[in-house]
Design a protein that fits this description.
The complex is a heterodimer. Helix content of chain A is 73%, strand content 0%. Chain A has helices spanning 2-48, 65-79, 84-95, 110-140, 148-160. In chain A, helix 1 packs across helix 2 (65-79). Chain B has one domain: 3-Layer(aba) Sandwich (Glutaredoxin), CATH 3.40.30. The chains are: A mainly alpha, B alpha/beta. The A-B interface holds A 52-53, 55, 65-66, 69-70, 73, 92-98 and B 29-30, 32-36, 103, 128-130, 133-136, 138-139.
Amino acid sequence: MQNKITQKSKIFLMLIFIFVLIENKVHSEDKIIQIEVLEERSQKIYKEIRCLVCQNQSIEDSNAGLAKQIKLIVKELIIKGYTDKEVHNYLVDRYGNWILLKPPFNTSTAALWLLPFAILLLAIFSGTFYILKKNKFKKKMPVIPLEHDEQKKLNKILDDF
Amino acid sequence: MKKNLLFIIPIITFFLLSIFLAIGLFLKPREIPSALIGKHVPLFNLQPVSEKLNGLKDSDLAIGKPVLVNVFASWCGPCRIEHPLFMELSRNPDITIFAINHKDNPSNAIRWLDLYGNPYKKIGSDLDGRISIDFGVYGVPETFVIDGNGCVQYKHISVLTKDILDNEIIPRLKGKKHVKCKIK
C-alpha cells in the first residue's frame, strides 16, 4: 500500500517536472520571439529617424552619442507598448518634424510633395501641345514643287549615288 | 507680341530661381528650430551638482517672470566663450538664469564654475542627458527663454552672441515677441 502511494507520487512529481520543463521551453521561445519582434520594429524605426548630430544620417547609421541614446529610448518606448506612430510622435514632440527623414504631408510640406508632380504634368501638357501644334503647322504647309535647276541638281546627286 | 511674351518666361523663371537660391544661401540648416516653442517645459526634477547649490525642477521655471535656461557642460569649449555674457547678465538683479549641466561630471562642473564664475541661480545635473532630450537639446550650448508660466518662448543653439542677446533674448525677457502657449 505504502509502496503504491510513493509510486503514484513519483509519477506525479515526474509529470510536474516534465510540465515545468515544457512550460519553461515555451516561455523562453516566447521571449525569443518577443525580442526578435522588438529588434525588427526598432530597426525599422531607426532607419526613419534622423540623427541630430550627423545630420542626413539615420540614427541606425550614426555612431554619435545622441543617436545611441535615442535608439535606447526607441526600444524603451516599444517595450512600454508604444506603436511605431506613437514613437514617431514622441520624438517629433521634442525635436520637430525635422527628426523624421521622410517629412510628413501637411500644409507646410504640400509644395514639397506636390510640386514635382505638378511640374511633370506641366511638362507633359506643354510637350503634347507643342508636338500637336507642330504637326498641324506641317500639314497646313503646301508642298512647293522644285525649280527646274533644283530638280536637275537632285537628279545628278541621285545618279552619282 | 505673343512671341515676346514667350521669351520673357525663361527670364522670369531664372529670376525666381535666383531669388530662391539666394535665400537658400543664407539658411542655416544645421540649426533646427525648436519643437518646444509655444509649449510648456517638460516635467523634470534634477539633482544639484553639489550639496551647497540648488537643483532644478520644472516648477522653478514658472515663477511669474521670464527666465533663461542655459544648457552647458564643463567639457564644452564653446560654453566657455559665451560664459562671460552670462556672468555679465547675472549682475542684473532682474534677470534669473538657470542651468542644466549636460552629461557632465558634477565635480568637474563645480571646478569649472569656481574657475569661471557661477551666474546660475539653480543648476540641475542631467547626468545621462535624458532630460536634455525632453528639452529637444542636441548639442551644447543651448539657451532657452521661458516665460512666467513655464512656456518655452525661444531657443538659441550654439554660442550666445551679444547680437542675439540684445535682439532676441532681452526683448523676450521683457515680455516682447511673446508666443502664445498651447494648452496641454
